[in-house]
Amino acid sequence: MKHTKFLILIALMSVPLVAWFKDATVVMLTLSAAAVLLGQSIKRRELIPVILRTNSGLVFCAILIWTLTSFMWAPHFSAMAWIKGAIVIGLALVVCVGIDQTPRDKLERLAIPIIYAAFGLLAVLLIERITGGFLVGLVRDGQTTDRLLNVMNGGLVLLSGLSFPVAALLYLKTQSWRFPSFFLAICLVLTAAFRMDAVPVALAAGLLSSLLVLRWRAPAFFVITSVIGLGALCWPVVAYLASEADFHIWFTENVHPNWGYRIAIWGRVSELISENVLIGYGFDASRFIGETAGLIPDAAGRTSFMHPHNGFLQIWLELGLVGVALFSATAILSVRQTVRRAPNRQALAVAAGTITASSVTWLLSFGIWQAWWLAALGLNVCAATLLFRLMVDVERTHG
Description:
Radius of gyration: 21 Å
Order of helices and strands: HHHHHHHHHHHHHHHHHHH
Structural class: mainly alpha
Low-confidence stretches: 293-302, 395-399
Mean pLDDT: 84
Strand content: under 5%
Largest sheet: none
């Protein structure tokens, strides 16, 4: 259908815009979901039943119910943040189910436009880095170069998550690993040139994970995801010990003040978690607690936070052990489903790289309820789902 193709085209054209506007990720996901719902090949009446028939879908519904329940003891009513998050996650689920229901020949036509869209984002980030944020500076007059480049963080995050599926699409089109390897190397070098150092760390970790899975397949995938999961679960204890040992002062003086501030926040959040372990402080409580709690000042003298700069810590803080258990169950079920559905080792390696890169960024920089960040994670899942469909016969034909 013409309008469906138009929506897909507009969605892909909005990819480079993420370098300037983080909310463009939500626009991309919305247009993609609209294209799915309007496509003739999609069984629209089966979307919700399909989601509810999966174990992951049922656990996710339990998470939604628990987050709603937590409003009862939350320090403020944040319904809009909940609605935005639920809508974004719902859109991602619609796109994933739609990809599963779309004939493969139609999906193959998306490969080249997606590659071009990723190249467009890469080009915008490169130009802005070389020029010190010249283009975004046209509408943000008077800001420093560092502040202008910080605007690019959304584009860097999206690029880091999508780089692995895009590299695999390049492999499908060229049947050579030279071009995908060069693309990933360019992404790593470019992201390292920005101030957001969590992204190149995430990309490097994703590359390592991909290589390990290419060599040892499913066992390596289970080990990698287990390490990530255990690291996330143990983060409160590690953060508390690091803060008690004054690591935040050392990082402030020897690495960067942002890292010292972050460790101080993690330590304080860990203390708050220990005071209310079971049910947490309620949905989106971080915003209120971070503004009012008496944080021990870090070496830079800053004491407030809007979120813990760690998605899993935010789950611990706001939803307690119950929320952590539900999110952990969702992660375990998703890992099992990923391994079961992976058509070959290349697809599983892409999944490992995407999961690792997204998780590292999530554990070092972001909270969990920002709509643009949820949309970026949703787009990562959609891209990996698309790749799984396209790589069904790759190992049998070329492996």
